[in-house]
Amino acid sequence: MRYISTRGTAPVLDFRQVTLAGLASDGGLYLPETWPTFSPEQIAAMRGLSYVDTAVEVMAPFVEGTLGRDDLKALCEQAYGRFSHAAVTPLVQLDGQHWLLELFHGPTLAFKDVALQLLGLLFERFLSGSDKQVTVVGATSGDTGSAAIDALAGRAGVDVFMLHPKGRVSDVQRRQMTTVLAPNIHNIALEGASFDDCQALVKAMFNSPEFSGTFALSAVNSINWARLMAQIVYYFYAAVRLGAPERPVAFSVPTGNFGDVFAGYVAAKMGLPVAKLIVATNVNDILHRALSQGDYSQGSVVPTPSPSMDIQVSSNFERLLFDLGGRDGAALAAQMQGFEASKAMRLTNAQQSGAAGLLRSDRIDLDDMAMAMRWACEGAGQVIDPHTAIGLAAARRADLKDVPIVTLATAHPAKFDDAVERATGMRPALPARVGDLFDREERYASLPGTFAAVTAYIAERAVPSA
Ligand SMILES: *Cc1c(COP(=O)(O)O)cnc(C)c1O
Q1: Which of 23, 78, 365, 465 is the most buried (most CB within 10 A)?
Q2: Is the pLDDT score of 466 beyond 70?
Q3: Which is the closest atom of ligand 1 to the Cα of 112?
Q4: Which position has the higher pLDDT, 143 or 342?
Q5: Which of 73, 112, 166, 276 is catalytic?
Q6: Which residues contact ligand 1 via a Cβ below 6 A?
Q7: Active site includes 269?
Q8: Residue 131 in this model has a pLDDT that exceeds 90
């Protein structure tokens, strides 16, 4: 499989190169040159497969030429062996139409473990035997950081610099990052910054010839293709359990950077019968405005109890626009440059009509979120986190008759215990495996949110590429 950039001019890469690179050198994002597809018979043959065996089926075409099936299976067994549920991503039924797909049974209690546990092993595999030293620079609204840090702590050849907006992540999220004391892990709290500010700084480092020429920079944010690839798996796993390919299934996805929902889009492109993909945003609703009115214009970020969705620039949306717009790199580069200059753009007619068939969006405010939490609790005995509640609220409003709707449960409720307690009166307990989090020592740097301050800090600690 070969990978091309959404902006058309970066070199074509193989799976190994695309995994280690993250962002493309022309400012775009990498995508497979073509979508592999499965026939209904091939999808039917996934019935009864374990999560790991499903993962091998779904991901094999994407790693072709770099990893064989046996290698891929061994990596998946190791990655998903660290999940605390035997089904890895179990389905839970709420009523006759609604289901939760629990994606939070990994080490850091959010769905990002599904991708990052595998990505950590891929990094180690691709770097071993070389003396290459990679510098991972990432921005996090909370969950990516903890999942990446867990996956990369202590791994040879990798230093991790993780930027988070100071005071805007939950205590559990922060401690899951800052109590990892491995010497290759560096947490940076940016003062007065939002997640978008952190993300913009990371982008600027990649786009700085001086900085990216000095260090072998690598990205573990959801712009990294390998992460999206790992997330395609659970759409297949869940839909097949609910009757695919004969019965179409809808998914409701709490969305921030459009990574998780883009993985669902890819699953549909690969032949999975997805009746609808519901793009659920909180009041930071740039994606809802883009999909319902064609208006992709950046507002200012409003902090909410679902911080992992408090995003106004949605990196992976570029991948959707590229695919829907006929994969024209030059046209997309011009469109994105227009957005970067004016912080606003219109979707083309082709992009809007292309999205309309499969995608539906909704914006969920605080009241609707709290109501969905109470409905799950009182109606089905399920305590859910604020992000999941946004997905569930959108699912319940979607008016899809006779179609099972799977809401992606993206975080364990204990990760956001204050918000859950406010809505439901119940305070969810941390699972025993992370129970001593509040007794552990924390270590992190607080820096002003400027390019100069952050790059100086990293340059003092990272290993330059040879
Ligand atoms: C990251 C995250 C999201 C948003 O996922 P995207 O891939 O950025 O759209 C939603 N919920 C939780 C709990 C998350 O950690």
Answers
A1: 23
A2: no
A3: 15
A4: 342
A5: 112
A6: 110, 112, 143, 222, 254-261, 308-309, 387, 410-411
A7: no
A8: no
* CB-based contacts of 54, cutoff 8 Å, min separation 6: 46, 233, 236, 237, 240
At 78-87, the pLDDT tens digits run 999 999 999 9
How far away, in angstroms, is 322 Cα from ligand 1 center? 22
Domains of the chain: 85-111+225-424 (3.40.50.1100)
- What type of residue sits at position 190? L
Per residue in 295-329, pLDDT tens? 999 988 898 999 889 888 888 999 999 999 999 99
Q: pTM, whole model, 2 decimals?
A: 0.94
The yes-or-no verdict on residue 21 having pLDDT over 90 is: no
- Which ligand 1 atom sits closest to the C-alpha of 258? 9
Render pLDDT for 64-98 as a digit per residue (tens, 0 to 9): 999 999 999 999 999 999 999 999 999 999 999 99
